[in-house]
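User: I'm curious whether this sequence folds into something compact or stays loose and floppy. Could you predict its structure so I can see for myself?
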Amino acid sequence: MNLTLPPKVTDRAFDRLAEIGELTGESKALRVAVDGGGCSGFQYDIRLDEPAVDDLIIQKNGLMVLIDQISLPFLQNATIDFTDELIGARFVIENPNASSSCGCGTSFSM
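Assistant: Here's the prediction. I'll summarize afterward.
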């Protein structure tokens, strides 16, 4: 039985989104989308944005993560996280749907 669930957003990701809002003085939502392209066929597009009518909105403490309806099937059961490592700080997607991913961390195939 393969349950399809919306993506999860970690506390670290929400915390970083709050920090970005404090630094910029703007309270924008984090949009996570999947586009065609990249080294492996698909790539993540992660940016600050305003909600659209048909977005899935994941909320916590007034913060929002947005996923459009076209990207949603590619992000079923995924985890949206934030990592701060030696190679840099960034939002990351742990996606069980991806059959392979690229070394850049933003490109994947299914």
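Summary: Strands lie at 8-9, 29-36, 42-49, 56-60, 63-67, 79-85, 88-94, 100-101, 107-109. The CA atoms of residues 26 and 102 lie 32 Å apart.
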